[in-house]
Specification:
- By secondary structure, the protein is an alpha+beta fold.
- The protein has a single domain, classed as Cytochrome p450.
- The chain has seven helices and eight strands, in the order ααααββββαααββββ.
- The strands form four sheets. It has a two-stranded antiparallel sheet. A two-stranded antiparallel ribbon has the order 2-3. A two-stranded antiparallel ribbon has the order 5-8.
- The protein is globular, with a radius of gyration of 20 Å.
- The structure holds protoporphyrin IX containing FE (HEM).
- The site of protoporphyrin IX containing FE (HEM) has 21 residues, from helix 1 and helix 7.
């Protein structure tokens, strides 16, 4: 980015743009997936049966290659459920192009609206009376049609939704499968979340016992 110029105009990226790109790499590309993994590992460490289920799934698909990872649907359902309850990016802004009325509120052209995915993803009218419970079954193929897609937006929506979605989900699935293959997790205190840029657990410790050393 610093050394390459536009082949047509010869112009270099302004330093402010390079700075913004670096921030995007760090926050959008790294911080979000790290937050998702931290929260997911917490749920897994508290649930040995769920760990075993995900291990069994990974073993069924044999290995950690690309094709095996995309078939790890149960692991993906666990990640989706964590994204529903604790979306690392709790919402996103949209700007009204024209005057609008939204849920009875007048939104003048040019005004920003923050779409709080965190609230929509826990709305009991959509997700049922157990909306606050951690239940990865919701995302099993047979049940995922029970809720309308527009109430699940951890990656935003529309043409400016997250460009890294597929990468992030693949990376997170692969990492979880590898961690569970190598370790048995446990020993966590109750989950406590905070938001500072992303929504993530307060620093916590867990125990990781190697599964392959005697
Ligand atoms: C669990 C991981 C991630 C979550 C929860 C997440 C979430 C989001 C959300 C909510 C948005 C705003 C979308 C909107 O306004 O509709 C966004 C945008 C974006 N994300 Fe992610 N993201 C994740 C991972 C990544 C990764 C790994 C990358 C890069 C490799 C990335 C790059 C971006 C970029 C560049 C944008 C701006 C897209 C645009 O403005 O057109 N994200 N992300």
């Amino acid at each position: 980015m610093l050394a390459t110029s536009d082949p047509e105009t010869g112009a270099f990226l302004p330093e402010s743009n390079v700075r913004d790109q670096v921030l995007t790499f760090l926050i959008a590309g790294h911080e979000t997936t790290a937050a998702l993994l931290e929260t997911t590992l917490h749920y897994l460490a508290a649930d040995p049966d769920l760990q075993n289920e995900l291990r069994a799934e990974a073993e069924t698909h044999g290995g950690f290659g690309y094709d095996a990872v995309i078939r790890m649907r149960r692991t993906r359902a666990v990640l989706n459920e964590v994204l529903r309850l604790w979306p690392p990016v709790s919402g996103f802004f949209r700007v009204a192009r024209d005057d609008q009325v939204l849920g009875g509120y007048k939104i003048p052209a040019g005004r920003s609206v923050f779409v709080l995915a965190l609230a929509a993803q826990r709305d009991p009218e959509v997700w049922g009376s157990q909306a606050q419970d951690f239940d990865p079954e919701r995302f099993e193929a047979t049940r995922s049609r029970e809720f309308p897609d527009r109430f699940f937006h951890p990656f935003g929506t529309g043409p400016r939704s997250c460009i890294g979605r597929a990468f992030a989900l693949h990376e997170a699935t692969l990492l979880l499968a590898r961690i569970l293959d190598a370790y048995t997790l446990g020993g966590v205190a109750p989950l406590r979340m905070y938001e500072r840029g992303t929504l993530r657990p307060e620093p916590y410790t867990l125990t990781a016992r190697s599964r392959h050393q005697s």
